[in-house]
Specification:
By secondary structure, the chain is mainly alpha-helical. Helix content is about 70%, strand content about 0%. Helix 24 packs parallel to helix 26. One of its GO terms (biological process) is meiotic chromosome condensation. InterPro entries: CND1/NCAPD3, Cnd1_C.
Length: about 1300
């Protein structure tokens, strides 16, 4: 009874509040919270007849059923989220109550209020803790707190006591919102949204907003997806295709989320597990689902990481679809590759995912059949390869990278690789041509991706790599960017690994090992690892091979490519790198014993095979490179070398030497392989020296005596002499019990050698002098040169060997006595000077340069070695070395002196520093070898800071950038582009203006006056003076090389310096532009200011065309900010400083009718083309110049638009879609396609329209010439007779020739021209 009384009291209170609100129609009167809670308690707890009583009493009071809508709607619009949700729950409960008038209660306005209530609660939901939704709201929810604190007090309305709905009073937003969504789902089962205008879209947007803002409230997400599924699955809510499209469109932001959030995963699961299965049974829903991936593709973001997330979302949805739908989407993706740049970039990623995720995309082994089921995969692959030549850099790079990844996944075996190669080569441009062109692309990102594609494609070639591609890969190993060099190393090594052909091995050996001296440590490590894998490990496979008597050739017994590797290491440039790599591997103890054993085994098998054929052992030589590599690796594995093996070959070489000397005594000739034997002897001695500690005592002593005896004979090759000296020193040092004992032994035999060598030199000088005196007293008829010349020739060889032995001995023992030797060498190297001074004294002096040039050269080399160990001697003779370097006409001597001067610079830096300006003259030597040697040696000194970049040194080095030799140019590019850019980044900026004056041989600049004060005689040697095309292009090449090294702020400062020091000097008369040099300086300055390298390039995003090797996101932001600041300062300097100078200079040039006026106008056009809208303000001081510039800019842009359109038309005509002969309809399609590709920009659109109009008129004129029916002839007009009497459309009294000439006229160009 008490409960009935309470319900009656609650009904009375609610009805009274409704009556009062119904009477106030002009004011919004929401229901109070107590009334809403009371109504909810009736709807939840009362029996059905109580709800009927509510409607009856409402009607009895004269209130319509809709009277409750207005107060409830007002309550749902309340700013308090809790009160708003309570009203929403009550409203939905009313709709679900028995006998409720749905048509009266469910109105669009009330439904929109309900949705706004739900949206308003989201903000409060995000502020509450999702982990504990049962907790009450905080102090911000005042009404709830007040009720909770006053539960024991009597409520203000007796009819609505708190004890009736205690849980409602404690409920918050996290509790109410799920209940509201549950009720909403139930209501949608009773009502139909099809008849309610604008109800579906707001509902879907509200639910999507809940999904995106409540990622951690999984219960809410499930409820929202349940409601969305109800909207799509039930046709009573409207057209199912429209509903599904609306739902899917609302989920698109979550699907394209840049991060993999839970809401994104839930949305994908809802689509793939609920909507896609529904689409299998419902074609209306399927129709919307089919277009979802396409919609997402159009809306996908452009940046890298968000785009990758979008691709993942799209592919998860596509994989859940039926095969037919996947094929249709694949066709759409192929069409995307012909769209805008953003779509093309996304398409290349989608193609990769489509082909890798769908195993039936195409069956690689059945590609030649091209069945209908797998043709979509073929089309995708073709489209991907076509995008490798895209006009956009980022798309080219991405397409190349994805193609490489795809080929790596699909080419699983030889058959698959073969069929893939057939497939990718079906295009108009061969795949090999594509690789070559992309590996030489201007953009670094494209080159890197192309090198990756080469690495993955090598398996597909089925044959050794082409020579042209190998050279491209080899040059890429010297790229300025670290990542490019790494990619090139990997590609070239992969080619060497799969196809160990002679040409591949040669290119690998000349490209990869030299990177052991790279500045990047990781590249050095890669170089070591690859050398160990591809060279040492391959050689070590021959360690257990045995000689087979039935073998016909040595190559058949050993692994493929082994002898090509060994022979390649004999190259002088490669050998240096091999020694460095082996030294690094040896220090890390990575050289295996099997390598040494394999090399010994190779030599043994080669000898056995030679003897098995019955040939003489004297004509046998070991495979090239075996002894050389053995001499290098044996230092780190001395115990692996067998003494019996070394002893056998040492005696064998001795035997060959004796036989060679015997033959030389008989016929004065040698065997063709004597040089090979000499090289093997040198490396054998080095091997013996390496393993000297492991030699037995008696054989070691015998070997030392043998070495010394052979040195005392002075009849060996010079390379052998040095090897003998070093081996003998090593034996003495290692076999001595103490270090002092070893030094004494070395000094003892060195003094013996020096004494014997001094005797030989003294004897030779005396003999030559006596011979010269005898010849001076004889007439030419009485001179007998035959026998005497032969004997002198033998003595000369012995004297040269003695001089070389002296030098080698002094190096190994600096403490030896050399006083007597200095006098003899001084006599030889100064003989030419003495002969010049005493020309009148017949027979008093001789010239060894004329009589014995080899001795003369070797004496200079030996004197240089002696100066290295004696500083007093160096002070006396260094000026003589410089003098001989300047005046000598022998390239070999100049080269040797250059090497000696480099060593002097390291040992006696202060003494040589004053001669650097004379040494650098060799950079312009007539001999390429001397120039290259000078460049390399001076570069090494500069890197080690023995020589500083000051004076004319840097300026003279610049000319190496345009040297006649390609090798020197390559070295110079590497020096300026890599080494100096890192070591001296400000050098190019500080010396740029001086370089302009220096290269033009213009002495106006103060720097040039100071540096060239005493060198005017050689100024032309280091200048590229002239206005001819070749000289200008060479100078511009140097300028651009320097500009590429500058930072944006340095480019700005350089621009200001050019204006202040050259342009301003010319306008002020300080620079004489009437002179050829001054005119060239001014022209160069204008061309530099107009070049694209001088412009400050904007910093692009992650998908930029260029690559930042080591920079990260923070560095990119800093660079972007710096670039923006520099750009603003550049604009300010242009307006305030440069433009006034340009105006004055233009007036000066015009007054002199200078040919540089056009160059100045072109420079101004380039500088101001980005400020077209501000030209009126910038050039306010010169209105005529303003008009001329505007005209030039308009003319240039029109010509550029015209050429762009012409190129686009040609590209479209060459495409596959337009291979048929052009007709009128096809021609119109071409221009429509061109207009779509180029966009709707004003000048481009106008140019396309002009081209289309021109083509149309040309077509009409051709048809008129052929007298074929035209639209004009088909018109219903009176037929008149022409002058010939025939009936036609046109008639005139003018002669036929005039009409014919007009008809044939084909020029429709504008008056501006090109």
């Amino acid at each position: 009874m008490e409960d009935d009384a309470d319900e009656s009291e609650t009904l009375s209170s609610i009805l009274s509040e409704l009556e009062s609100s119904h009477g106030c129609r002009d004011e919004e009167s929401p229901l109070s919270e107590s009334s809403i809670l009371g109504l909810q308690s009736l709807l939840d707890a009362a029996p059905d007849n109580a709800v009927v009583v509510f409607w009856d009493r409402l009607a009895a009071g004269g209130l319509p059923a809709s009277a409750i809508l207005r107060p409830l709607s007002s309550s749902m619009e309340d700013s308090s989220p809790r009160l708003s949700l309570l009203a929403a729950r009550a409203y939905l409960s009313l709709l679900l109550s028995p006998a409720s008038p749905l048509f009266s209660l469910f109105t669009p306005l009330a439904f929109l209020s309900l949705l706004r209530s739900i949206r308003r609660s989201l903000k409060s939901l995000t502020l509450s803790s999702p982990a504990s939704p049962e907790l009450p709201l905080d102090a911000s929810n005042g009404p709830s707190d007040r009720r909770r604190n006053g539960r024991k007090r009597k409520p203000p309305r007796p009819a609505c006591r708190a004890s009736t709905f205690p849980m409602d009073q404690a409920s918050g937003v996290p509790d109410l919102l799920p209940r509201v969504l549950q009720l909403l789902d139930s209501v949608l089962c009773r009502v139909q949204l099809d008849g309610t205008a604008d109800a579906l879209k707001p509902l879907v947007e509200t639910l999507s907003e809940i999904l995106s803002s409540s990622s951690s409230h999984h219960g809410l997400q499930d409820l929202c997806f349940r409601v969305l599924y109800s909207l799509v699955s039930k046709p009573e809510h409207g057209d199912q295709t429209t509903s599904a499209a609306e739902v899917l469109r609302s989920l698109a932001p979550m699907l394209l989320s840049p991060v993999k959030s839970p809401s994104r995963a839930s949305a994908i699961a809802f689509i793939t597990k609920m909507l896609v299965p529904l689409g299998y049974e419902n074609d209306a829903v399927r129709k919307a689902l089919v277009y979802l991936p396409r919609f997402l593709s159009i809306k996908a973001p452009e940046k890298s990481e968000p785009r990758a997330c979008a691709v993942d979302s799209i592919m998860e949805i596509v994989q859940a679809m039926q095969e037919e739908d996947r094929v249709g989407y694949a066709g759409f993706v192929v069409k995307m590759t012909q769209g805008k740049s953003q779509l093309r970039l996304l398409a290349v990623d989608l193609i990769l995912s489509l082909l890798t995720s769908s195993p039936n995309s195409f069956v690689v082994k059945e590609l030649p059949q091209y069945s209908n089921d797998n043709v979509w995969g073929v089309n995708c692959l073709r489209a991907l390869i076509q995008r490798c030549s895209d006009s956009a850099t980022a798309i080219r790079a991405r397409a190349l990278t994805n193609t490489a990844q795809l080929l790596g996944l699909l080419a699983v075996d030889s058959d698959s690789a073969s069929h893939l190669w057939d497939l990718i080569g079906m295009g108009k441009v061969s795949f090999s041509d594509l690789l070559r062109s992309r590996c030489q692309d201007d953009k670094a990102a494209v080159r890197k991706a192309a090198l990756l594609l080469v690495t993955k494609s090598i398996k597909l070639f089925g044959r050794p790599v082409e020579e042209v591609l190998l050279k491209i890969l080899s040059s890429a190993c010297s790229d300025p960017l670290v990542t490019i060099r790494k990619a090139a190393i990997i590609a070239l090594s992969e080619a060497c690994r799969i196809y160990p052909d002679g040409s591949v091995i040669t290119q690998w050996l000349h490209s990869v090992p030299r990177l052991i001296v790279d500045n990047e440590t990781s590249i050095q490590e890669d170089c070591e690892n690859l050398f160990q894998e591809l060279v040492l490990d391959r050689i070590s496979r021959a360690s257990n091979l045995n000689f087979e008597k039935d073998a016909t050739s040595l190559e058949s017994l050993f692994p493929e490519g082994l002898f090509d590797l060994l022979k390649g290491t004999c190259d002088s440039e490669v050998a240096i790198c091999v020694r460095k790599i082996c030294a690094c591997l040896g220090k890390k103890k990575k050289i295996k014993v099997s390598v040494v054993r394999s090399l010994q085994n190779t030599i043994k098998i080669s000898e056995s095979l030679w003897l098995s054929t019955g040939k003489s052992i004297e004509k046998w030589t070991a495979p090239p490179g075996t002894w050389q590599l053995l001499s290098v690796v044996s230092l780190f594995t001395p115990k692996a070398v067998e003494w019996e093996f070394l002893h056998h070959h040492w005696h064998l070489l001795d035997k060959v030497i004796e036989e060679e000397h015997g033959k030389n005594n008989i016929d004065d000739g040698g065997e063709p392989n004597s040089f090979m034997w000499a090289g093997d002897r040198v490396h054998l001695l080095q091997t013996i020296a390496n393993v000297s500690l492991e030699l037995p005592p008696e054989p070691a002593a015998e070997l030392a005596c043998n070495l010394l005896d052979r040195l005392k004979n002075f009849n060996m090759n010079l390379s052998e002499v040095d090897a003998h000296v070093k081996a003998l020193k090593t034996l003495c040092k290692r076999k001595a019990t103490r270090a002092e004992e070893g030094d004494i032994l070395v000094l003892k035999w060195v003094q013996q050698l020096l004494s014997k060598a001094l005797e030989i030199l003294d004897s030779y000088v005396t003999d030559v002098r006596e011979s010269s005196k005898m010849d001076s007293f004889l007439t030419p008829q009485n001179r007998r040169k035959g026998t005497r010349d032969a004997s002198i020739s033998k003595l000369t060889f012995k004297a040269v060997t003695a001089a070389f032995t002296i030098g080698s001995s002094i190096i190994v023992c600096p403490s030896a006595n050399i006083h007597g030797i200095v006098a003899v060498l001084h006599t030889i190297i100064t003989s030419e000077n003495s002969e010049t001074k005493s020309r009148k004294l017949v027979g008093s002096t001789i010239s060894f340069k004329e009589l014995a040039l080899p001795l003369y050269i070797q004496s200079w080399v030996t004197m240089g070695k002696m100066c290295l160990v004696d500083d007093k001697l160096a002070k006396r003779y260094i000026p003589l070395f410089v003098q001989e370097l300047e005046r000598s006409d022998n390239a070999a001597l100049r080269n040797n002196i250059m090497v000696a001067m480099t060593d002097f610079c390291v040992r006696y830096t202060a003494l040589v520093d004053c001669y650097i300006h004379k040494i650098t003259i060799s950079l312009r030597d007539s001999c390429e070898v001397v120039r290259r040697q000078t460049f390399i040696l001076l570069s090494q000194l500069l890197q080690r800071d023995y020589v500083k970049w000051r004076g004319v040194l840097f300026l003279r080095f610049l000319l190496s950038l345009v040297d006649e030799s390609a090798k020197i140019r390559h070295l110079a590019d590497f020096l300026f582009g890599n080494i100096l850019k890192a070591k001296a980044p400000l050098l190019a900026y500080n010396s740029f203006v001086e370089a302009i004056f220096f290269l033009n041989d213009c002495s106006i600049h103060s720097f040039n006056n100071e540096t060239q004060g005493g060198l005017n005689n050689i100024s032309q040697l280091f200048s590229i003076r002239g206005t001819d095309e070749k000289s200008r292009s060479q100078r511009m090449h140097i300028y651009l090389s320097l500009l590429r090294q500058m930072a944006p702020e340095h480019l700005l400062a350089t621009s200001a310096k050019l204006c202040a020091e050259i342009l301003a000097a010319a306008s002020d008369g300080l620079l004489n532009i009437d002179d050829v040099a001054g005119l060239s300086v001014l022209r160069d300055a204008l061309e530099i200011l107009a070049c694209k390298e001088m412009r400050i390039q904007p910093i692009r995003g992650s998908d930029s065309s260029e690559m930042d090797d080591e920079g990260g996101e923070g560095g990119g932001n800093i660079n972007a900010a710096r670039c923006r600041v520099v750009t603003q300062v550049a604009k300010k300097n242009l307006i305030q400083i440069a433009i006034p100078i340009f105006i004055e200079l233009k007036q000066l040039l015009e007054s002199k009718n200078s040919p540089l006026t056009g160059c100045l106008m072109e420079c101004l056009r380039v500088l101001l083309k980005d400020y077209k809208s501000e030209i009126d303000e910038i050039l306010v001081a010169d209105k005529q110049l303003q008009k001329e510039l505007l005209y030039d800019i308009q003319k240039y842009e029109a010509a550029k638009a015209k050429s762009t359109v012409a190129e686009a038309i040609a590209n479209v005509q060459r495409s596959e879609s337009y291979r048929s002969p052009l007709n009128g309809q096809n021609s119109a399609g071409i221009y429509t396609r061109v207009a779509e590709n180029l966009g709707t920009q004003g000048k481009l659109a106008s140019a396309v329209a002009d081209a289309a109009a021109k083509a149309k008129v040309m077509s009409v004129l051709k048809e008129a010439n052929r007298k074929t029916p035209t639209p004009l002839r088909a018109m219903n007009v009176p037929k008149l007779k022409d002058t010939q009497g025939s009936t036609g459309v046109l008639s005139s009294k003018r002669p036929q020739s005039v009409l014919e000439s007009l008809r044939r006229r084909q020029s429709f160009e504008s008056d501006e021209g090109d």
